[in-house]
Specification:
Blueprint (H helix, E strand, L loop, with lengths): L15 E2 L12 E10 L10 E8 L2 E6 L4 E7 L2 H6 L5 E4 L2 E9 L1 H6 L14 H5 L46 H7 L13 H4 L4 H14 L9 E4 L7 H14 L12 E5 L4 H12 L6 E3 L6 H6 L5 E5 H6 L1 H5 L5 E4 L11 H7 L5 E5 L8 H11 L7 H15 L6 H18 L3 E2 L4 H4 L5 E8 L3 H11 L2 H7 L7 H14 L1 H13 L6 H7 L21 H16 L5 E5 L2 H14 L3 E4 L5 H12 L7 E5 H4 L10 E4 L6 H11 L8 E8 L3 H16 L16 H7 L9 H5 L10 E2 L29 H5 L2 E4 L8 H6 L3 E9 L6
Parallel strand pairs: 8-13, 8-14, 9-11, 9-12, 10-11, 12-13, 15-20, 16-18, 16-19, 17-18, 19-20
Antiparallel strand pairs: 1-5, 2-3, 2-7, 3-4, 4-5, 6-7, 15-23, 21-22, 22-23
Helix pairs in contact: 6-7, 14-15, 17-19, 19-20
The structure holds adenosine-5'-triphosphate and magnesium ion.
Adenosine-5'-triphosphate (ATP) binds next to helix 7 and helix 8.
């Protein structure tokens, strides 16, 4: 078959026949060319329509545009012509005329670099390599340091503000020639930018590195012409301090003639952290150096705009949306989005609002890994460095599709290789402006952490009610797979309430009796006959502590902490407001002073409550916290004991809570107690949390809620079983030979590598103490039954009577604080 185009004089020969897969030459060499193309025409002077990549493999060829889309493919019947193809050649293929501009190396194709406009215009700026890690005295300064330190704001001369040669000085990278060419039009002298020694004194090594990284990013020194960065350090590593150091530096200094790089900074953060930012500025820089303006009910954006006094505006995401028009009128030079993983969805209002701000220097702060979903990853990258990965459609074709394809079990060797190379390229490119360090970098500065999983024996009333619930018609229906209206979620909810305290279940039953929706079948059939199990005169307001196994353990625990550590405080966490009410009532009954933060606490009061608790003058013994409602980003270092009263499906919720206490600034060893009711659904949820980790490597992502969980009937059967005779079903599952009668630690040689299910693959991933625990890791924890004779831990000793089993793990045992 000959194409009509083959007749055209002056045009090169069409060498295409329809594609027939089976004709492909398996062993033939693949060649890649950069080409320009246009539709076939008789015109002598071609008007090329675009750049493309031509892939030739034996007789077959594919033509891809720079978005990675196929714009032509087929088989060449004149194999020889394709074989001879080289620079300058013109050929007709697939109805298109192409001119070969150059040869692309397989490496450039596999990595995807050849698709980037200009064949790699995203070149890494040489300065980032040349000037890496020049913390102290990297250059002989052109300008001698100013004799007077701490000059007033805005003073410029060509001397560094601080001595770059001083011991321990932290000097930022110098701009390279390219940077100077672009940004130093007035040929000002180059001046060293030196971090204020006042701050350097406090900085941890990883924070120094982080500041240097942020500086290079926002100055456009890492990727030419791009000024965005993502600081994704794990929780508690001091992302706030790193940003404050950067702001203070850029506001007073700059590499060109010492002229400050920025004037105004916008910090957008969750409402509960607005005041935390203000406090951190004050903590690290005092109130004189920098004037920050936190927006709240009494302090509106207008005030900031009118006053020349303030240089930093701190505002919540919600308030930003409300004041967007005013904010757009201010010229901000630096934008920082705290807990910025919320921008992973580019369609939401917050993201579009922030994108509409013209500020080029953008930083996202997040404690959540950002690489686990390639679409969300794109949104975050595109926010900080717009366009760096091309359009969304080209990103999908060049990176996402090959990467995902290569992870399918059915992927061919070729697909695997391409996917891996593209993933590596993407990591390499984005790694220039994403920094993530794990908690390990800070562990050595933290006190010991003693984690305990405590399996509490259920009370008699709990067991009786539990059995009855499991025998209900509603549960039987679930086990037959009749899950139409999600009755299993109602059953799970009832069992969880019962584990916390039977009175919660009683309230639900009574609530349903009175409500007009009592005709909801599932719920009625679940509660049928349950009231009769409670004593006839049962009054939920007068609940007793013996009715709940966990509550008994909690009370003993509080009493022993009070007795053995009278000055230490406890953070008590539940995910349910009703449970917090019970715990609050218990505090009241026992005369324990408490404070409380939950979803209902006005944002404006949150910081005050946190500060009150952290203060050494506070008389509060207990901080009642709803972790889901507002735990993110809070510092609760005033407490050194954390009790997780109930368990959430999402391990991230608990990890969030744990890292509120065990963080920089904590003075005492931190004790963590996770209370679970033995043999019940709580153990099952815990097992699900940990057993899935080995397989899915689920990451800390707070956005995943229980509604996302799908259950098979098999799983429901397991969930709806009560194991009355086991001391600890979790231990039974571990395949551990011990009987729990002495301290036992599983085979410690069997250290499991921690892997994360990241779409970008395992490269780059470091182990993390904030990753959910896995079954095999739990086996390495010390474990023993409640009947064990010699408990060395005085806190556990006091609660053993109500406890069937313990797991314990100590981190940083040797730290001397
Ligand atoms: N170098 C330091 N020395 C002492 N304390 C520090 C240092 N750096 C940070 N901190 C303190 O550590 C605590 C945690 O810092 P920060 O709130 O910035 O963490 P983060 O990285 O933002 O964590 P999250 O992801 O949980 O928000 C704060 O109380 C902060 O003041
Ligand atoms: Mg933070």
């Amino acid at each position: 078959m000959t194409s009509p185009m083959a007749q055209v004089h002056s045009a090169p020969k069409e060498i295409t026949v329809p594609k027939r897969q089976e004709e492909e030459e398996p062993d033939s060499l693949v060649k890649y060319f950069s080409v320009v193309w246009c539709k076939a025409s008789k015109k002598k002077h071609k008007k090329w329509e675009g750049d493309a990549v031509l892939i030739v493999k034996g007789k077959s060829f594919t033509l891809k545009d720079l978005e990675g889309k196929d714009i032509g493919r087929g088989l060449a019947y004149k194999f020889k012509e394709l074989e001879k193809i080289e620079e300058g050649h013109r050929v007709m293929i697939g109805g298109k005329e192409v001119e070969v501009m150059g040869i692309i190396s397989p490496d450039d194709f596999n990595s995807g670099r050849c698709f980037q406009l200009g064949g790699g215009s995203l070149a890494i700026s040489s300065s980032s390599q040349a000037a890496k890690k020049c913390f102290s005295n990297p250059f002989k300064s052109v300008c001698k340091p100013s004799s007077k330190e701490n000059r007033p704001n805005g003073f410029q001369d060509c001397k560094p503000r601080h001595d770059p040669h001083a011991q321990n000085s932290l000097v930022m990278s110098r701009p390279d020639n390219n940077h100077q060419w672009m940004f130093n039009k007035s040929c000002s002298p180059i001046v060293d930018v030196v971090i204020d020694p006042y701050l350097v004194y406090h900085l941890r090594p990883h924070q120094k590195e982080g500041i240097l990284f942020l500086y290079e990013c926002v100055m456009g020194m890492r990727v030419n012409g791009r000024c965005g960065a993502i600081l994704a350090d794990e929780m508690g590593l001091g992302k706030t301090l790193q940003c404050i150091s950067l702001i203070w530096t850029l506001q007073c200094q700059g590499p060109y003639g010492g002229k400050p790089v920025i004037k105004k900074t916008l910090i957008v953060t969750p409402g509960s952290l607005v005041n935390n930012w203000r406090k951190e500025f004050q903590k690290w820089l005092g109130s004189e150096r920098i004037k920050v303006f936190p927006v709240d009910q009494d302090h509106k954006v207008e005030e900031f705009i009118k006053s020349p006094f303030y240089s930093v505006l701190i505002i919540s995401y919600e308030m930003l949306l409300r004041s967007l028009d005013q904010i757009k009128n201010v010229k901000f030079d630096l934008l920082i989005c705290d807990e910025g993983h919320r921008l992973k969805n580019s369609a939401i209002k917050t993201t579009t609002a922030l994108i509409s701000l013209s500020c080029e220097k953008r930083i996202i702060l997040t404690g959540t890994p950002v690489q686990n979903d390639l679409q969300e990853f794109f949104a975050l990258i595109d926010f900080v460095n717009p366009g760096i990965l091309g359009s969304l459609s080209s990103y999908r074709k060049i990176y996402e599709e090959p990467i995902i394809l290569s992870r399918q079990p059915s992927a061919s060797e070729e697909e695997k290789e391409l996917g891996e190379k593209r993933a590596a390229e993407l990591t390499c490119l984005t790694g220039l402006f994403i920094l993530r360090r794990t908690q390990e970098v800070i562990n050595k500065y933290l006190p010991p952490k003693i984690e305990n999983v405590v399996f509490c024996r259920p009370g008699a009333l709990q067991i009786e009610l539990y059995r009855k619930l499991l025998n209900s018609q509603a549960v039987r229906f679930c086990l037959q797979g009749l899950l139409g209206n999600s009755p299993h979620l109602i059953c799970i909810g009832a069992l969880k309430k019962l584990c916390n305290h039977p009175c919660l279940l009683f309230n639900s039953i009574k609530g349903k009796e009175c409500s007009s929706t009592w005709d909801e079948n599932e719920e009625r059939s679940l509660y049928e006959g349950l009231v009769n199990v409670f004593p006839a005169d049962y009054n939920p307001l007068m609940f007793t502590e013996e009715e709940s196994g966990k509550l008994q353990v909690l009370l003993k625990l509080l009493a022993v902490i009070r007795e053995l550590r009278p000055t230490e405080k406890v953070v008590l966490v539940s995910n349910y407001t009703q449970t917090l009410n019970i715990l609050q009532e218990v505090c009241r009954r026992h005369g324990y002073a408490f404070t409380r933060l939950d979803g209902q606490t006005p944002v404006s009061q949150r910081q005050q409550i946190v500060d009150g608790f952290n203060s050494k003058y506070s008389s509060d013994f207990i901080f009642l916290l709803s972790s889901k409602a507002g735990g993110v980003g809070l510092n609760l270092i005033g407490g050194s004991h954390l009790i997780l009263y109930d368990i959430d499906w999402n391990p991230a919720t608990d990890i969030q809570a744990m890292s509120r206490l065990w963080r920089d600034g904590q003075k005492h060893p931190v004790h963590i107690y996770r209370l679970l009711t033995t043999g019940t659904i709580e153990e099952k949820i815990y097992q699900r949390q940990i057993s899935k980790q080995d397989l899915s490597g689920a990451v800390v992502d707070l956005t995943k809620t229980s509604e996302h969980i799908q259950f098979s009937v098999e799983e429901l059967k397991n969930l709806f079983t009560l194991h009355e005779s086991s001391h600890c079903v979790t231990h039974d599952l571990l395949d551990c030979e011990c009987t729990g009668d002495k301290d036992h630690t599983g085979d410690s040689l069997e250290k499991v590598p921690i892997s994360r299910n990241c779409q970008l693959g395992p490269h780059h991933q470091k182990s993390s103490s904030l990753k959910p625990l896995s079954m095999s890791q739990l086996k390495q924890w010390k474990h023993f039954s409640g009947d064990h004779l010699n408990l060395t831990d005085p806190f556990l000793e006091r609660i053993r009577e109500n406890v069937s089993f313990f797991f314990q793990n100590i981190t940083n045992q040797s730290t001397v604080i």
